[in-house]
Amino acid sequence: MIENLTSSRLCLITIAAQLDIRNGSQGAGSVYGSRTPALFYNTNDTTTASPGLKHPAKAVFLQHNYPRNSLLAAGVNKYSRSQVIAKRVLYKRKPTGAIAINAPAANKTVEVKGAKNGGSRVIAAAKAPRFYAAEDVALPKKNRKHAGVAKLRNTIVPGTVLILLAGRYRGKRVVFLKQLESGLLLVSGPFKVNGVPLKRVNQAYVIATSTKVELDATKIDAQLNDAYFARPKATKKAATEEAFFEGEKKKEPLAENKVALQKATDKVILEAVNKVEHLRQYLSAKFSLSKGQAPHALQF
Amino acid sequence: MSRLYAKGRVLGFKRAKRNQRPDISLVQIEGVKTLADTEFYLGKRVAFVYRAKREVNGSKIRCIWGRITRAHGGSGAVKARFRNNLPAKSFGASVRVMMYPSRV
């Protein structure tokens, strides 16, 4: 790699290395700096654009998933400014005109009634903050990390009987319905059998048994998703002084449509459960370890 | 009953002959006698449950949580790291090895 560099680059690298030793190395800065070109070459040309581009700036400006330049030493890039620009292959691309920049929001002038009120008010488009801190405090960076969706274990299949290991229903044997978009498992007792309602459960807190209920995955209502289990947002005005002193709120009964959905889902499960001998009793019994049983030796 | 955990005993701290490292405790799990058996328990959460005189959050029972990190030796003992180090009073005391996070 070093052989391909021009002699001038090599000189720059050695100079940079010397400076590093004297000044103490600095971190690599951005190759592009803070310049944002006003005229962009648009990505209607798909032949040179690389697939999988999601960031809008990338789609317009970079058009590829790899950086065009790289840092050899502090202040010394592999390619010169003109070389990087040449890499953009502009001769092949057609400029499609400037990207529409949204006009900044204008101040609003509002008419005000009243003889002594001055006739009109100017409402600024950007509202002045209510509070100015005395000292500049560094804000922590926003976390942009998102945990991926957990991969479903191959032992867990719609209809598998699962043992819940933690939570209010620990020890209960329960039927697995499907994995939701968040990665959580949708599960039902059935409610009549062991009191476990339609519930979301994390895969890590579940043991998959080899017992399976013959369940048609398509028969599970499409309504059952993460949004179905979202908690209803409490109204702000509900927090009155009286309520504060009263203590806990009364628990509201479950919505009728949810009760109906529970019954409908369980009906399908129970049809399959009743076909197998002892399966209903199995589901109503709780799992527990007894003396001499070590989990690592058990075959679930 | 409804036990959903394996029983274990705290053997002591990780140590050499004359120095000990209290951040890691050694645990012996009932029924686990070989190195191969310990593989199931790696990563499992462990609870050291103990009683105290003063009530905290409405209970006199307290708990220190931890996780099993690796095997110790070839006879089924296991190393566990707790959120707060176990007190030396815990040597010989019982510990609950939960079955979660489950990989089964």
From TrEMBL, chain A:
List residues of the Large ribosomal subunit protein uL6 N-terminal domain. 64-95
- Gene3D superfamilies in the cross-refs: 2.30.30.30
Might you report a single GO cellular component term?
cytosolic large ribosomal subunit
Q: Which Pfam families match?
A: Ribosomal_L6e, Ribosomal_L6e_N
Please name the GO terms of the biological process aspect recorded for this protein, alphabetically. cytoplasmic translation; ribosomal large subunit assembly
Q: Keywords, A to Z?
A: Ribonucleoprotein, Ribosomal protein
- Superkingdom of this protein's organism: Eukaryota
Family according to the record: Belongs to the eukaryotic ribosomal protein eL6 family.
What name is this protein filed under?
Answer: Large ribosomal subunit protein uL6 N-terminal domain-containing protein
Supply the source organism for this entry: Linnemannia hyalina
Taxonomic lineage: Eukaryota, Fungi, Fungi incertae sedis, Mucoromycota, Mortierellomycotina
UniProtKB/TrEMBL annotation, chain B:
Which Gene3D superfamilies does the annotation name? Answer: translation elongation factor selb, chain A, domain 4
> Which controlled-vocabulary keywords does the entry list?
Ribonucleoprotein, Ribosomal protein
Pfam families in UniProt: Ribosomal_L35Ae (PF01247)
Taken from the UniProt entry, a GO cellular component term is: ribonucleoprotein complex
Instruction: Tell me which InterPro entries the record gives.
Output: Ribosomal_eL33, Ribosomal_eL33_sf, Transl_B-barrel_sf
For this entry, list what GO says about its biological process: translation
Q: Which GO terms describe its molecular function?
A: structural constituent of ribosome
HAMAP family under this entry? Answer: Ribosomal_eL33
- What family, per the record? Belongs to the eukaryotic ribosomal protein eL33 family.
Q: Which PANTHER family match?
A: 60S RIBOSOMAL PROTEIN L35A
What's the name of the protein?
60S ribosomal protein L33A
